[in-house]
Every structure is written in C-alpha cells, then in structure tokens.
C-alpha cells in the first residue's frame, strides 16, 4: 500500500491553471474515517467554485467532492463498511481528484455490484442532488403527475439526470439549454419541451407552453443570468429552487417582488444539508441506486479525462462545451 499518491492541489484561487498534480502523503484513517483507492472521480461545477474562490476553502486545498473506488483501510468506529468494499460518495472535504485519500466515512456508501466505478463516480453528487430537488422538494411544492416544472441547464450533468427522473415521476419538464443540439439531447433524455435560452426568450416560451399559467417549480442553477426572469415563469404560489450559480451569483432579491409576482416562494438549498447524517445519505443513495438499476435513469458519462488533465476538464466545463457527466480517471 503506497503512502504517496498523485493528487490535484491548489495553493491559490484562480483559473484552471491553479490546479497542480503533485505527490501527497496519505496516512492511516483516524476515528470515523476511511481510506479509499479511487477508480474514478466525478467532476462537478462546485469544483469550479472551489478553484476560483466563489466558495472559499482553507488553502492549500484538494479539489473534488465525488468519487468511487475500493476501501483500503478503516478507522475506529466505522461499522457500515469493510476493507475491500466497492464504494462511492459525494462528500466533504474536497479532495476526490486523487488516486487515494482519507476522508470521513459517513457519506461513503456501498456501490451495488451492478453499477461500475465510472457510473458510481459520476452519479453521487449529481444524482443525490436530483433526488432531493425532485423527491424532497416535490412534496413541499405540491407537485403532482402532469405538472410543469422548468429546469435550467437541462443538458448538463445534473440536468440530464433530472430530465429522466422527472419523466419517471410523470412531470412535464421544460428544459433550457445553450444550443439546439443540447436541447435535442435533453428531449432524448425525457424533457417534454426545451428552450434554447441563447436564442429564445425563455419567459415567453414557458408562458406559451403552459397556456399562460406558468410552472409550479423552477430549478435554477444558472444564477445571475436567469434568476429574476425565472420568477416570471412561476404561477401564483410557485417555488423557485435556486441551487447554483454557473453564470455568477444572482443579484440580491428584493423580497417585495415575491408578493408582486404572486405570493411566490424561494429556497436556496444545498446537498450538504440533505446528506448531513449517514442515515439520510444512505436513504437517498438507496433511492438513487433503485431508479438507476430500474433503467429509468441512465447516468450519462460523456467525457473521461486523465487526472493530469483536470485543468482541461475545467476549461471545457466553464466554456459550456460539456454535456452530461465527466469523470477523471486517476
Ligand atoms: P453542468 O454540467 O450543468 O454545467 C453547467 C452548465 O451551466 C453549462 O453546461 C451550461 O449549460 C450552463 N451555464 C449557463 N450559463 C453558464 C455560464 N455563464 N458559464 C458556464 N456554464 C453556464 O454542471 P453540474 O451538473 O456539475 O452542476 C449544475 C449546477 O448545479 C451548477 O450550477 C452547480 O453548482 C449546481 N449544483 C448545486 C448543488 C446544490 O445542492 N445546491 C449540488 C450539485 C450541483 P448551457 O450551455 O446549456 O447553458
């Protein structure tokens, strides 16, 4: 068992070039921790926020919140896993862009034998996000089969999983995306309607598609470029789930707008509240694994990069060149 592994580190925040492939020591896991040997690492937009400083990290820092591999060592008090288990996780702290790492065990779960490592690495952070956005926000928002929802960036990693899961739940997902090709991909994954928001006015198109009524829920991960107009897509009492900022942070909200636009609700949720305990993480992962194993949701791993090419992966993600999920192979 090697004590030195290759890993991505940043010493300062900035562009993709801040990520350096270095040799780092990996020790034995402490209480509540495990050591995992990664077979694949998921790439997520949150990794960009960590790298560019939008979500500040103590430096120097590792990058990456999602991975899959095999348990190499177990710390005291970890009872739900054993050495040799195939596992996957979405979890803190960042550091999955590595050949191996030590991390808290509570967000690590067993990966079913039928799910390969690349799929496992791609599906945890993005799939658990769709799980809580659809399955836990759904009752809050009073969503029922046949209802319309609007999902921005529908051809992305989270987006293509959402298109499929929403269809399985009987929802009519209206997806936005940045090109006609991306729109076609979202429809092929179950979006009922799509809007190219670079060439079309998405508010007008949502009104047209819904017969003027608007949608019950908007899922907005784009932020600055879409937030306020997303409110205009809601029907009275509708809910805006603002869960990301790919175009930059949304402007501060004048809360009076929520009254003016029809007694609206706004939430700013994060996955990390939802997976704060091992029990919740396991329950959400079981739900995700079940829908993937049923075949209703297929995890679209579209790009694979070597660990040394992490900077290229970030350039492609930020340039909006990717669709679906991308993974690093360590
Ligand atoms: P994606 O694969 O969806 O990539 C981001 C997409 O955002 C791009 O492909 C692009 O699609 C769209 N986009 C719109 N404007 C911009 C812009 N100015 N710059 C770059 N991209 C832009 O990433 P992920 O699937 O990893 O994540 C999707 C979103 O979900 C992110 O905002 C992320 O932060 C958020 N998220 C939030 C979580 C939470 O719990 N709150 C958890 C997980 C993810 P297009 O070209 O079609 O517009």
Describe the fold and architecture.
α10 (310-318) links the parallel β15 and β16. α2 (117-141) crosses α3. 31% of the residues lie in helices and 28% in strands. The strands form three sheets. Strands 3, 5, 6, 7, 8, 15 and 16 form a seven-stranded mixed β-sheet that branches. With 330 residues, the chain is α/β, with parallel strands linked by helices. The two termini are 16 Å apart. Residues 44-46, 125-126, 129, 153, 155-159, 177-178, 182, 221-222, 225, 243-244, 246-247, 269-271, 317-318, 320, 322 line the site of NADPH dihydro-nicotinamide-adenine-dinucleotide phosphate (NDP).
Summarize the structure.
The chain has helices at residues 45-52, 117-141, 157-168, 180-188, 202-209, 227-231, 256-260, 271-274, 278-294, 310-318, and strands at 4-10, 20-25, 33-43, 61-62, 66-74, 86-90, 100-104, 108-110, 148-151, 172-177, 193-196, 215-220, 234-242, 265-267, 301-306, 325-329.
């Amino acid at each position: 068992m090697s004590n030195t592994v290759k890993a991505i580190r940043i010493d300062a925040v900035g562009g993709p070039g801040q990520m350096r492939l270095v040799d780092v020591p990996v020790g034995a896991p402490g209480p509540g921790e495990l050591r995992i040997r990664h077979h694949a690492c998921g790439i997520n937009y949150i990794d960009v926020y960590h790298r560019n400083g939008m979500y500040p990290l103590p430096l120097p820092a590792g990058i990456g919140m999602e991975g899959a591999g095999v348990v190499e060592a177990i710390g005291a008090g970890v009872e739900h896993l054993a050495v040799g288990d195939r596992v996957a996780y979405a979890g803190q702290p960042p550091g999955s862009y590595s050949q191996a790492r030590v991390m808290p065990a509570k967000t690590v779960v067993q990966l079913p034998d039928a799910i390969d490592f690349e799929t496992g690495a791609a599906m945890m952070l993005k799939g658990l996000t769709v799980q809580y956005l659809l399955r836990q926000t759904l009752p809050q928002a009073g969503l029922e089969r046949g209802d319309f929802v609007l999902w921005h960036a529908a051809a992305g990693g989270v987006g293509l999983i959402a298109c499929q899961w929403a269809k399985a739940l009987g929802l009519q997902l209206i997806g936005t995306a940045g090109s006609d090709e991306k729109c076609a991909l979202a429809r092929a994954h179950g979006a009922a309607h799509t809007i190219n928001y670079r060439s079309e006015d998405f508010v007008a198109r949502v009104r047209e598609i819904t017969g003027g009524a608007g949608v019950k829920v908007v899922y907005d991960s784009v932020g600055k470029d879409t937030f306020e107009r997303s409110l205009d897509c809601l029907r009275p009492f509708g809910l805006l789930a603002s869960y990301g900022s790919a175009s930059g942070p949304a402007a501060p909200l004048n809360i009076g707008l929520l009254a003016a636009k029809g007694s609206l609700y706004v939430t700013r949720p994060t996955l990390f509240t939802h997976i704060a305990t091992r029990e919740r993480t396991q329950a959400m992962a079981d739900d995700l694994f079940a829908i993937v194993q049923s075949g209703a949701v297929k995890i679209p791993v579209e790009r694979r990069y070597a660990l040394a090419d992490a900077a290229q992966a970030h350039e492609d993600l930020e340039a909006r060149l990717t669709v679906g999920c991308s993974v690093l192979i360590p």
